[in-house]
Amino acid sequence: LPMAFRDVNARRHIGLQQLSSLALAGRTLLGPMKSCKFIVDESTNQSTIICSAVRLIESLDLTSAAGQLLNETIQAQNKEFKTGRSTLLFLVGAWSNGVLECLQQNVPVSAIVSVMSEGLCSCCERVQCLQMSIHDVNKELCSSCVRPNSFKSKTYQIERDDLLNPQSFLYVQKDISAPEVVVPVNSCSHQEGDCNLSKCLLSPWDSFGSTTSLVRPVGDKSTSVISGSGVTASSCNEQKLTHSRYFSTLGKCRFSRQQDKFEGYHSGQSPDPCECYGLGHLAMSLSHGNQTSTKLLQSIVAYQRERAEHSGSSHLNIAEIVTCCLLGLPESYSCISPGFVTLVSPEQSAVIKYFEDKPLRILLMDGDLTEQYRHLGFNRPCNVRTVLEHPSLQEGRAGNLWLSSMLDILISFEVNLVLVKGNVCKNLMEKCIANTILVIGSVSRDVLWAFGEVTSAQPVTYLTQVNAACVGSGAHAELWKACDGRAVDLGELVPVGIKARGIPLLTAVLTTTVASKMQLIEDQFWTSVYRLHHALNDEKVFLGGGAVEFLCLSHIQMLVEQSLQPANKNAVKEFHSCWLAAPVTEYKSVVLQALASGWKQYLSVVMCNTAKAASELEAWTSIDHHLKKAANCGSTSAYILKEFRRGELLGGDSGPFANHREGLKVYDNVTAKVEAWRRALDLVLLVLQTDAEIITGPKRNQLLNSEVSGEFMFL
Length: 715
Known about the structure:
Elements: E1 3-7, H1 14-24, E2 37-40, E3 47-50, H2 53-59, H3 65-81, H4 85-104, H5 109-126, E4 131-133, H6 134-145, H7 160-163, E5 180-182, H8 192-195, E6 214-216, E7 224-226, E8 231-233, H9 250-266, H10 273-287, H11 291-307, E9 321-327, E10 335-338, E11 340-344, H12 346-355, E12 360-365, H13 397-412, E13 417-420, H14 426-434, E14 438-440, H15 445-455, E15 472-479, E16 494-500, E17 506-512, H16 518-538, E18 540-543, H17 547-563, H18 582-585, H19 588-609, H20 616-633, H21 636-646, E19 667-669, H22 670-688, E20 692-696, H23 700-704, E21 713-714
InterPro entries: BBS12 (IPR042984), GroEL-like_apical_dom_sf (IPR027409), GROEL-like_equatorial_sf (IPR027413), TCP-1-like_intermed_sf (IPR027410)
Protein name: BBS12 protein
């Protein structure tokens, strides 16, 4: 193959320049107040809205080696944590610029690698003092958010009867086997924005199979009775509207308080605020202002918490959560639905109407339902010659025979519902519909496992393996109904719900009327879920709002000052590597300044994106002011803790919770954030140490005729 290489180990390091340019596109994605971007596909002219680094990188044409390495790094962070990707992308660009400045000053590559690596390790050790345990965070959040004087104001006053009002809770869908009960929906007409979302609410402790109540709207009444509970719910308290119902944050705060207190009161827990409120407030603090996803997550936490063996345990099982995206409904219709919600064709929905309110015999398939499918590891006989790999099932007699035999198996075992992990043969699907058998493909393994647990169905790889013990029973299917009680028909696809008694599975139904926004909403939901998941796994969180990065910046500047004082023996205590030898020590201050510039740029961009500073110069001035105050305080960490508790760190109350109740703070994940730092620096140093780029594939003439032909040496 024709090959060429170009020297990249120069002052204008091409790989680092490419990283810097790619990272520049993601500056507006940093911080809680992100600015979305339109990505337009030139081939189809279709557009989508993105608000995360992973979607941005996926949409770019990454032809360079550095760009591909950046993509792999961000994808690895996304696969493991689902958060920290924008931080990683930004720091890659900031530190690439810092390294380029070091190269301009003739700093050796070995010195850059050693000093920056040791500097980041020192920062990771230093910021451990800003970690807080989940228990302490819950206690602090709850004591500041639910203390008695928090409820004395007219706006936030909540009575016990009002806590029992179903209109106060996020919509969790009704059961399919419950009796019907009348619940008013007009008593909160002055809060249309919030009440439209919760016209037929289900209390979070009513798991599937319990004596739950279907709800239907009736006339304007001031009270409602929920049968079997002995509870009377009063009408909503009046709420003053701020600007518009779409911008009213008072009702949202009020909702989260009521939901948590409602849950704790009825589950018989102790009045300890940390037991009743903790995860709800923690989810909000980790959401960085994404309230829609947080409300859905709070409903999931309440539901799973009631199913846990020990009430009040910190429990979030991601394997029991799936999403279903419905395009065409307002975002206010987003909700949590027990069971599995998915989209099917209108022909399949007709089968569901036939089976509605009837128990179904269910079969689970761990693979594709096609004639050509073979399981992983299958070895074809060595003495068989393949004549045709994919024959037409409509024309071939053998294909028709396979279709008939598969259909006979399903009919003989009286199977009504088949959930398939992979693809489904289109012709077999049509024959099953004609015989009133519902087949749904592309079902995740977690969904199959959940239905297998409650229906006793055993997954099979091929239909020929089916026996009586593999078929489960007790599943139910129905058309999915929106919060107003009406079935939804989206034209080409129809949402349906599949449930079974006692199934722990929950579906987050995400809705929007803007097609290009659908992926964004789903990404934001999963980010909120995984932030809470990682916080519970780590059992600790970082102080948010730039506190950790500010401490890193202050710490690195202290090391810079120490490095400028060779006579000070304390200057070498922070580092223990061999790079402290005389030839390298002289470059230490320059390299550490490059590392510190990354933290300073990070803080300044976050402040600008959140409108805490009008310009980058103003942000830098504010950061320097806080650095001086921290130095005068004597202890940077103590200064950060004081300012964090006062809500005045780096700009004050203009963050994502500026309009929320007093006491709600911002926190960050520990492992995800630190790993994003490490991955960002590792990528920069990897590209830095690449002394040549070898190109294979393109023809010689293509490279000779290109604009950069002078940079290549042909082999």
